Amino acid sequence: MSIAYAIGMAEPLMIEAINEKGKDLSKIVRKNFDFKPLVIIKKLKLQKPIYEQTATYGHFGKKNLPWEKIEKIKTTAFFG
Prior knowledge:
By secondary structure, the chain is α+β, with helices and mostly antiparallel strands.
């Protein structure tokens, strides 16, 4: 997935999401997720640093980190 922002703009200029089969999922992603910077900061709790947990072995693949949580969405309206 790719997201492009412009300085001073809350909404992203571009969101590109493509599944493993090449299907464009951008509309689904835009409809189900809010990509405003403040929303991301709050949702991922980025104002409370967790240096100790992220200092070793990278920032990804650790189940206890907020950005590793998988959120399921209903896609029947799109793939019905």
